[in-house]
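for ur thesis appendix - DNA damage-binding protein 1. copy paste whatever u need, i formatted it the way the template wanted (i think)
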Amino acid sequence: MAVLTSTFRESSAWTRSLTLHTSKGPRGILVSSGFLSFLRLNLDSDSFSSLQDTDAHPDRFELVHQFQIAPPGLNYTSPGQKIAVDPLSRAMAVFAHQTTFAFFVLDPTLSSSSTSSSASSSSSSSAKVPFSREYCITVREEGWSFWDAVFLYPDSEAGAGRLDVVTLAVVVCKNGSFSIIIYEYKKPSPQPPLFKTTPPNHLTKYGPFPLPSSLLPTTTHALPTHPLSFLLFTDTLDMLHITHTPTTPSTPQTTLTHTSQTSLIDQIPLPPTSTSTYPLITSLAQTPSQNTYILATDSGHILTLTLTNPGNPPHVTYITRRNHTSHLTHLANDVYILVGDMCPGELVSISLSTQTVTRVCRIENAAPVLDVVVSRGVGGEEQGRWVPDDGESITCAAGDEDGVLVVSLGARKEVVVLRVGVDVVVEVSRTSVGFEPSTLGFDVVKGRKVVFVGTYEPAVLVLEVDDVGLSFGGVLEFGADNGGWRIPNSICVIRSGGEEVLAIGLRDGTALFYVLAYNVITSSFGFQLLDTIKVGLEPIRFIPTRTLSDSHVLVLSDKVWRASLVENGSISTIVLNSVCIDNVTNVALLTSSTTPPTYIFSTPTTLSFISLDIASSVTPTIRHSHSLSKPPRRIIHDHATNTLIVACNKRESGSTEMTGEIKLVDPETGVQYLREVLPNGESCYSMTVWNIKDQKRYICIGTAGYREAPGVKSQGRVLYKPPYKIKKLGEYKLPELVFAVCSFMKSYLLVASGNCLYQLKIEAESRALHCGAKVELRYPIRSLSVSGSNIFVGGANDSVSLYSFEPRTKQFTFYRSDDLTRTPSDCLSLSTSKVLVADKSGELYCLTNPTPNTDRSQPHIHFKTSFCVNLGETITRLHAGQMDTGFEVDDLGICSIQEDEDMEEPDTIDDGVKRAKELKTIYAVSILGSVFSVRGLKEESVERWKALQDVLSSFPATRPLLGNDYMRYRSTASHGMQNVVDGDLIRMYELLSEAEKQRVVDEWRFCVGLDDEVEAKRWVETVVRGLRTIG
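the 3d part is after this line
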């Protein structure tokens, strides 16, 4: 899906202003169904006064207009792959991969009600869209592939005539050579209104103008301050500043005219970097100064580009290097969002005057997930919930051990006091604080419960908490905000003797300390400045131990410090000492019940549990640390000994090959008992536990890249080891990569190498692995799962096939396969007749034998698809398990999707035997880091669940926007959605207002024939609550 990042100007009359767009207005979106959709994001309730849709709701997308521009699916010559919009909203262009693009003329006087689109007419919104399908020009460029496109800003000083000309620059490619083509469209006269005459049916074409053969274009950007100019970044150190100079074209030959007027100027070298290859400019953001831009590269380099007068070379300055950045966006003032490329991103402040970068916060990105294990006994039941009114959002919160909570509603500038009871949260009072809160602190000062409210004024308000709510207790103002960074970010209280000191951490890295005093007569607090300390450049966060005798606190900024309140006679001072741990990104108090208290320290490569007695020393005692530098490829959790067997692949410095290693780790302490490194270049691909008999277990690892000698073709190997010695007992060499291993019928081992399936067994005399049987398949094998003597085999291009093994004859027998061609990534047997499969296109489906396993009269009948759904992400692993949530779900009709037959309790939960008694949940993890859970439904409850899904899929506030059809939205790929209820859709019920919820319940009980309104509301609310807690 391609998403349009420009916005359409909302205006009742045509405007000639060159002002950049605001965040308002509909946005255009392309989807693979071939539809072009226009959406509006409603940000606040004030924007709904002119809307006729009674279901309009803040912070929701609204479908404004929609129509089909191409057939569904992928097609290289059908428009729908890329979209560009003129910065003045005069035109837009939708491109195919090659040959064709559609040029649409936009008119702000047109509305969605005046179009012939059926999708538009079904929309209840009266919002305007500057578009009509009647004014579309189709352009064909045979043999050309469209690489990138950008609309150029007009020259406002050249007169009104130039504002009526729309200029589009397109980067095209043919036979590996790149060129630039300029298209111009001139609006007809007279104006306004815009279209009283027939609009022109062609574009004026200039070019193509060849680019140097050594350049590969990467990014284009139109320049607001340089009319008819744009920047073209390439894969080398060169950047092209291109200006289009229009002239009178020659006579049109067909529907296009040709001339050769353009100039390529200012070939600018970027500054050298520490990398050996050229950095690729991945994104560009304009600063508040329209002549200066911030550039980000694929290697994390941040640069500034300043454009001067035309003809003068721009000035490029190298600033710093951050994480790999895939997208850069200007947020406000000097704040920018750096989106990480498969790594954490950042919200940063970039100072153009000092060339410094200050991180405001970290944006986590945990993808991809490579493996998963499930641990039981994790989870809990929700004890109560408080939800703010529609349109309100919670910005920060604080509480105490007595069940008193204080939350701030940022948009309303209010502070709400809540009291937690038994299964209920009661709102006690609301207090307006005049400014939006930035942080809250809750403590007991001078025997009184006090809430400290930091605001964007900037200031700190003191509010006393009593049984009826809040009362004003004083205010501390900071004066000028110094560019917006003297805003309170964290607040706590430290004590020494009878003195109490208020610590305030600001976003500019400054810590303020004030002595607190209480005036009984005025019932207010006084503040006396004790000390001001510049701790670092990043916002400060305090990590207190939450005890009333706490004279020390941890301070996190650029690094970790200990702040201590020390008494020296009658004078108190603040002493700051550094904690000797580098590159700390986050600190949290794990428990204060131990002596000394335990903290969790995270760095970019480790997660450490540290005992730190900050009252006597700043030298930490590391209890245990989990290294994150080498992500695990496969993990096995052995419940008998509560240990982890981890297979990792790492790249040694100076080497281009991955090398595997196997570790035995205690998951609670992080102690690494054993470690074995494979030969250089041999990496781990699969791992399983082989249960031969009681008290006899082996760890089997499938590898690739093994070479007996340098220069010899690499092979795959199967290594088997005792689980807690990590000593190799033997090996079996195979010609190709070992992609899957699986224990089978206790004493056998199944191995998938290339397109061959091997049955291995340890010989009694030699204690060596021996191949007892082999079968060759048509395609490489990617996954294995067994149930009894049945083997489910996932092939690269052949979905899943069922084989049976006969121990007496030692032969594999093909039983049945899928009737559809799919590309499975993993499979999980649920019984001897049922298997769950995930494929690389994002589909999750269940295959079932249509006849009993004992019926061999028709051995080649295909599997029957029990259910199918497209999750939209490639699933890498499937796992059966159950996390205890403490929530009973029997009355919801949820059951196990596994059958009772052939269930066994294995010694370990691993890849070989993934079934266990009463395991009701299947977990699927994706390459993007998502975790999906799949549960079964009892037959008698299916009707209720499906009816609720049908109601929500057509309800105005919860139905999909793109395509406006739930089945097409949820699963457009491959084989559609069958016999599946979407829990994510049902959970959208929580986002509705009370009136909307009642409408949904009424429609649902009408569908299922339930007369009892109270019982209907209880069932729906229970279902939604159950979906929140199901693990």
